[in-house]
Amino acid sequence: MQDILERLNAGEVVVGDGGMVLQLERRGYVKAGHWTPEAAVQHPEAVHQLHREFLRAGADVLQTFTFYCSEDKLELSGNVTDITGAEINEAACDLAREKWLKGSALVAGCVSQTPCYLGNHNEAEVKSLFKKQMDEFLKKDIDFFIAEFFQYVEEAAWAVEVLKTSGKTVGATMCISPHGDMSGLPPGDCAVRLVKAGADIVGVNCHLDPTACIQTVNGYMGLPEFPFVVLLSSLSLICRSLTRWDVHKYAREAYEAGIRYIGGCCGFEAYHIRAISEELRAERGFLPPASEKHGLWGAALEMHTKPWVRARAHREYWESLLPASGRPKCPSMATPEYE
Amino acid sequence: MQDILERLNAGEVVVGDGGMVLQLERRGYVKAGHWTPEAAVQHPEAVHQLHREFLRAGADVLQTFTFYCSEDKLELSGNVTDITGAEINEAACDLAREKWLKGSALVAGCVSQTPCYLGNHNEAEVKSLFKKQMDEFLKKDIDFFIAEFFQYVEEAAWAVEVLKTSGKTVGATMCISPHGDMSGLPPGDCAVRLVKAGADIVGVNCHLDPTACIQTVNGYMGLPEFPFVVLLSSLSLICRSLTRWDVHKYAREAYEAGIRYIGGCCGFEAYHIRAISEELRAERGFLPPASEKHGLWGAALEMHTKPWVRARAHREYWESLLPASGRPKCPSMATPEYE
Amino acid sequence: MQDILERLNAGEVVVGDGGMVLQLERRGYVKAGHWTPEAAVQHPEAVHQLHREFLRAGADVLQTFTFYCSEDKLELSGNVTDITGAEINEAACDLAREKWLKGSALVAGCVSQTPCYLGNHNEAEVKSLFKKQMDEFLKKDIDFFIAEFFQYVEEAAWAVEVLKTSGKTVGATMCISPHGDMSGLPPGDCAVRLVKAGADIVGVNCHLDPTACIQTVNGYMGLPEFPFVVLLSSLSLICRSLTRWDVHKYAREAYEAGIRYIGGCCGFEAYHIRAISEELRAERGFLPPASEKHGLWGAALEMHTKPWVRARAHREYWESLLPASGRPKCPSMATPEYE
Amino acid sequence: MQDILERLNAGEVVVGDGGMVLQLERRGYVKAGHWTPEAAVQHPEAVHQLHREFLRAGADVLQTFTFYCSEDKLELSGNVTDITGAEINEAACDLAREKWLKGSALVAGCVSQTPCYLGNHNEAEVKSLFKKQMDEFLKKDIDFFIAEFFQYVEEAAWAVEVLKTSGKTVGATMCISPHGDMSGLPPGDCAVRLVKAGADIVGVNCHLDPTACIQTVNGYMGLPEFPFVVLLSSLSLICRSLTRWDVHKYAREAYEAGIRYIGGCCGFEAYHIRAISEELRAERGFLPPASEKHGLWGAALEMHTKPWVRARAHREYWESLLPASGRPKCPSMATPEYE
Fold first, then answer.
1. What CATH number was assigned to the domain covering residues B4-294?
2. Most exposed among A236, C216, C336, D30, judged by the fewest C-beta atoms under 10 Å?
3. SS3 state at C264
4. pTM above the 0.80 mark?
5. CA-based R_g, chain B, Å
6. pLDDT band with cut points at 50, 70 and 90 for residue D171
7. Where are the domains of chain D?
């Protein structure tokens, strides 16, 4: 198994994993509102199982379950009193490792935005938080770093600068819209800033539906400075979820936009990652293990006893499906409260 | 831990588990269209983890992962060539047992409708399929039986008659609408037939949203013949899922309708079962373990940095929420193809 | 021009007119909330023009613009201080007559439910209100009577009993649902009661969408006592209107259900009545005058400059159209406040 | 009654009229797809009545019913064989005159885009079509000119240049989006071009919902060259109509954006124009005649027999109403076919 950059340089399509905190919240192991990853220590078997599902669905990279695992965030949340960040970060590295998982994937050590940055914008303090996490990861065997879920490019750039001191490959993904980051810097400028800070791979993640993600990434793609873009889309809202058929379309569009590292974020479950793997099976040359339990485009419906169900066993049916909400008393679009 | 009937007789509210085949399909272990449970042998850790989630969410009963595990159905599906039904049924009993799960719940051995019934309506043949499954369960340590997911009351009654020969408590739940079963028999008549066949507990499951489930059960409740009703609601369709707040409402309505065994079916995940447990915490006297990772009614949002998110940390907000589909080009209701 | 009963007996399809009070409210001549018809005196040219539109659209019967024109209702509304009911009723008869309209249609003198009935249920008093209106109509030249918009069958039957004393044909339409009238009497029983009171034609009008109207009328149709049924559908709510294509479907379904007097109620405009006439052009043997300004099924789009508009010039396009609301932040169904 | 420019210069709010061709199509006098105004000759009483409704609703300006009345368009439509454009234009001027209408309003002679422009872009030919119409209007007594419904600014500017030779005031409104006209010229540039051609008043009309109209006009407003802006919004699509409450909001927003000539386009009926008049009653100092038949904000519901209807008799209820479509099987947004 080669290095992530070698693989991307060789033209390989790299499939990422899905959203861990949101899924583990639904399973009962993460507290919504806090979103901290202490389950890596408290319930390792639950974290372990979710890694295994993403691996089975075709993920080439597993991200450590270390979202919001900076010391300041853990302290602020107040729901982790007897476990240190170091314990979580180290346990999470072990959980993502292949020896547990009976499969092989690269492991990316992940850091994310800190409350400290919003509080005081103190570069030294924020960087020391990232440095501490990086050192903990380096005690374990991780393959590269990802700085993810940053709303301000300045903080993301600081994270990249710290992580680059490790000598390892560093990717950085921001949760920004086509209008730019929270400071108003357009996507293209954010990307340039991250590359200048040392990022080898840049991308977007979360807060956006796939179409908006790809539109945002287009702001990245026009620039010559960076070779690789990662796309991690989100579908996390209540009662809103992408179908596997939506993800086929998303994976194809991302591929056609030139993106070669494609994964998911909040709301992506194993069947979404499998859909990426299945859509790009020709380009990748293989199907993931989980496809043994999946008829492509509903093929397993061909033997249904009811003719109108058998009629669904083909791609055209699912591609043209307009899924109903089942909620006629609800709107189809909400008004964002911050508008 | 008492017997299920003792607990119901004592007035206890019994919480069931959620939907296993649908959830394990999403995780990559069950094939949609076939819906057979060979993962109990092939991927026991995945089945085991899902049991653990439901247990942690407050389930008092775990159903064995043996849906559609009659020999005729396994053979018809064609995707289980080297594993016998006996192997699956026996493995599934072990997986639902508490020694694995570090918790305690009653284990219900489950049988479901057979292709054989639809094919030839041969009572002896259908009953021998149920008898074989029952004997496999009885090699293991299960607490009682559930016959579930029957569309015809005749077949359900045959299953009950077989299972009662074990001497154990038998529950039976049908997937029927307020209009009755597929032969047109109204819910109340179905219930009488099941009770006459020997069922100790009767109920409905699947194919219906909660409101319709409760309406159907009302067809059961008016009759004096049977003491206990189980309610297993479903929310399985693409892009349609109940919110945890919907489930609070559903659990309360079911309780007020006099139902004392309340669980979920296809689409119910751990957070739905937890919502049942949380809604009925006063009646049951305790919260489930998973509630340590859940602020009731969004309480964990109270410390959010953004004021409009903090404003959501109360019950009124979530109860009055009309979740948007995010799909303005889709309808809110679909036209059933069989109409 | 024959009598209405002769025409119906001869198998003719009789087309009714549309909704006058609602349309004249939009045009500025009727006060919403009161819905009284003083415009017959105050703005005869506006009433006259609307009659002319319905006539031109194919109406065989024009109803006098005398909705809610009982003395008690006029007094209660308080917005008609210097005009008597007699003046309105008489003016309305003239306005519906063909000498003004340059066309020919039967004129039906109309009475509707009274506040008096709800107030005291005094048969003598309610009947005297209907008697007074009837006498005013009989001073003018009307062809037959319609008692319309009754929520209680008892009051409708009283109206029929009074109107029958004139020796003229009497029709009666109630605004009831498939569940029956406001006293809970099922549609079929309402119809029998009306026929026993002397009604020659019975029907339903208003408060219902076309599908529910036809479903309600089915409650009427099974009975042998009455030969003729009139169907007046409604589409009056804010932002809800039937398309002309919906009305094609409605007219066909009504015809196939055996109904031979088909019109509209609140919300039906001239183009809806024209759609009834156009759908039933083969059965009636002619098109109405207004069809000179209408390409059937969008035929006039055939010469549009844009190809995607030309592609709409055929029946299949319009029949399969699912019209969007354009309001993604609104629900598709509302919750009735009286539930 | 002063000149339109004197009134606007004096700070008066001028209310326009609504959409004539669309409304007369519904009434049976205009052919959809052709949209030509031969009804001015064929059915003057219908045109006359609609003018009267707009006047009664508070319109200060009535536009002649001469949409698409250039000779080339009339010939192309093929549905006007025995009537000349001159006959229509002259009849239309008479119909909009106050002597018929028993009220007073300014009369604007209107020209609109020509098929000739799209066909050959021949300036001399297109201008001669406008010149012919202008000369016909000048035989009658009109107050000023409006060039309306132009998709290309070049053709609109040609129309203005011709009309200015009359010495009369000229307004020009284009049906363009915030992205500009069909040639891609932004709204502000379109406006400058029109003003340079001699337009005294510029504006937008049709093809847009009110919010987009105001957004487009903002592209006009920033420029110093022109003093007056007219806003004619549209709501013409099947099953989409603005409520009177939507129009209150639209009128207020237009007023606050500095617009002082506010009317409607396709789909605006008398009750929409009345809503403009009612919203701006304080600014204008009076209510229109049609308000005698309208309780502001549902005031007439105060005396309804049902309490939940009485509860609607206030502004807050109607302002917060989210009108349901009543069509759960339809989407809320459509996909434009030309995308």
1. 3.20.20.330
2. C336
3. strand
4. yes
5. 20
6. very high
7. 4-294, 297-339
